[in-house]
């Protein structure tokens, strides 16, 4: 593994819904093994950026490289191979209520592999124990708490042993303690399994705990990319407000 290798490179990405520009000439690199957090006020384009990276949407212009390969010029089959190495947990990404927990977690394996059911069950058990939910194997989603559901979704996102994990608002709607536990889990996945983790979140506490670097999107523009220390030094009004670094401003009012 190369040190400081860029596992994702985005160059001059511009994206629209109909005629409205949502991502405005964005460039950024995500390094292998880091926790990269995407920030910005609601509607800034965070989810849209994730959807472009995983190929759900096509940009107007720009370039996206994953594992050093240009994914936008790729045949579908080649892109499918890349997708197998990417785990995704979407904003509000729901579990299927009619299926037991283990079946929910098994879905990507059923879709992408031809493994026998016994092997699939073993992999699912292993992933559920990684998120401390071995006992929930045969439960239905309706029998789980909010935090447990998030962890099941996390188990599903890592069931294919991804190299990159995308997580859109993992702790939204959780109490602070459960959210902190989820952060611990995210850090564990990064440290133990070496997964590169790309997270969208608004939770300040969470950002401080997990972020190696952050990207701040403002109305579709990359206005900052770097460490939290560098973010503070950047002294940008909107970021100061977001992080609660605007005491100075308030005092003078
Ligand atoms: N499918 C769509 N069709 C048209 N416009 C859309 C679509 N999805 C999102 N938008 C618009 O694109 C902009 C960016 O949306 P996006 O969901 O990427 O924001 P976000 O940063 O993820 O916001 P949040 O923090 O609320 O999740 C918003 O103005 C939104 O209304
Ligand atoms: Mg969003």
Descriptive keywords:
alpha/beta, 2 domains, four-stranded antiparallel beta sheet, globular, binds adenosine-5'-triphosphate, binds magnesium ion
Provide a descriptive summary of the structure in words.
- The chain has 253 residues and is of the alpha/beta class.
- The protein has two domains: 140 residues, P-loop containing nucleotide triphosphate hydrolases (Rossmann fold, 3-Layer(aba) Sandwich), CATH 3.40.50.300; 68 residues, no CATH class.
- Helices cover 39% and strands 25% of the residues.
- Helix 3 crosses helix 4, helix 3 runs parallel beside helix 5 and helix 6 packs parallel to helix 7.
- The mean pLDDT is 92.
- The structure holds adenosine-5'-triphosphate and magnesium ion.
- Adenosine-5'-triphosphate binds next to helix 1.
- The site of magnesium ion has 4 residues, from helix 1.
**Count of domain modules:** 2
SSE pattern, N- to C-terminal: EEEHEEHEHHHEHEHEEHHH
Low-confidence stretches: none
Q: Bin the strand percentage.
A: 15-25%
Structural class: alpha/beta
Question: What does the main sheet amount to?
Answer: 6 strands, mixed
How many beta-strand segments? 10
Q: Helicity, in percent? A: 25-40%
Question: What ions, cofactors and ligands are bound?
Answer: adenosine-5'-triphosphate, magnesium ion
Which assembly state applies to the chains in this document? single chain
Strand order of the largest sheet: 6-7-8-3-9-10
At the third CATH level, what is the topology name of the largest domain?
Rossmann fold
Please identify which CATH superfamily of the largest domain we are dealing with. P-loop containing nucleotide triphosphate hydrolases
CATH A-level architecture of the largest domain: 3-Layer(aba) Sandwich
Shape: globular
**Separate helix tally:** 10
The level-1 CATH class of the largest domain: Alpha Beta
